[in-house]
Amino acid sequence: SENADYRCDDFVVNDTKLGLVQKVREHLQNLENSAFTSDRHRKRKLLENSSLNSKLLKVNGSTTTLCATGLRNLGNTCFMNAILQSLSNIQQFCCYFKELPAVELRNGKTAGRRTYHTRSQGDNNVSLVEEFRKTLCALWQGNQTAFSPESLFYVVWKIMPNFRGYQQQDAHEFMRYLLDHLHLELQGGFNGVPRSVILQENSNLSASNKCCINGASTVVTAIFGGILQNEVNCLICGTESRKFDPFLDLSLDIPSQFRNKRTKNQESGPMCTLRDCLRSFTDLEELDETELYMCHKCKKKQKSTKKFWIQKLPKVLCLHLKRFHWTAYLRNKVDTYVEFPLRGLDMKCYLLEPENSGPESCLYDLVAVVVHHGSGVGSGHYTAYAAHEGRWFHFNDSTVTLTDEETVGKAKAYILFYVERQAKPGAEKL
Ligand SMILES: [Zn+2]
User: What GO cellular component is one of the record's annotations (predicted)?
Assistant: First the structure.
């Protein structure tokens, strides 16, 4: 059924561009000079050549026009595509990048974008921000049914070598790397990036943003940044210690009592809801013997309890459901359906000081969902649902289809993106 419908490898596009992409990957892997990865690469290439014809047929099959633009799969890159499509539908975030001047303008040169690549630091003479901007600009333009994000992926593979391989990767891990690197580069963490230009243009961003990670604030922390209060109590002397942890997303366990349930309609017992996952995240937890806490009063490691509160909610709340779990030798997938609201997720009861928040600022509406189809983390396929101007779309690599709320609600979500509902529309705009 669902698992059989989506196989990542079916969607690899074998056009002239793929040759280029393979050259890029080959080049990078030669640089790496790793016997292990190149061996895997060779095997993969053999497989690809043998199934070339079937793939071509698939690609020319059902596609929809609309104004939406798909993203080509460049060989198990659906985990990146699903994240990019989700982010591209988070308007505040996406608009920030689209409004950035193109790099040649930022450089004050008109000689073309190539000049930019000469600007820095050995191997890192590339700009993730610029390639991310170009990709976001290409989406939703309506003049292409699918965009090939090879120049973005080139930068991703260069600065995040762990995503270079041809095997399926974890979309959540990729999202964290992507956001962290965008944040770093926007701060001027790399040589030569004109930090001042970027921060000045968005002066109202820094004002609204109090949760900075690694120093300065950027659009990444302004949109996704929240703050957790981590409260630990020593079970021996009762001493309480609190610390504040900034976060860009929350990783939630699917409570163990729900882990064996498979489908939405499977009876026996209540259905797992997002609220169950949030509650288990914020519930008081007794840490076990393997996680002893260094109590400063007892001056030794003690048993303790831990509790999370949300001290500050973000503008965009990103919730990651921990579907992949390590057992002794394997990483297993928890395939439980988790019911989630499309509108009005109320976060008030998880707040440290709910009385300090406005009447509506704790309500969130769903804007995108990343779904993993298949059974293992190293296999399967990622797609995304996202809302654009009131309509829901399903993004499956190069194919984009119009869908509806009912279908979205049935998805076995892996990552959920919720946008804070504004009390007065337009009152606080980024
Ligand atoms: Zn103690």
Answer: nucleus
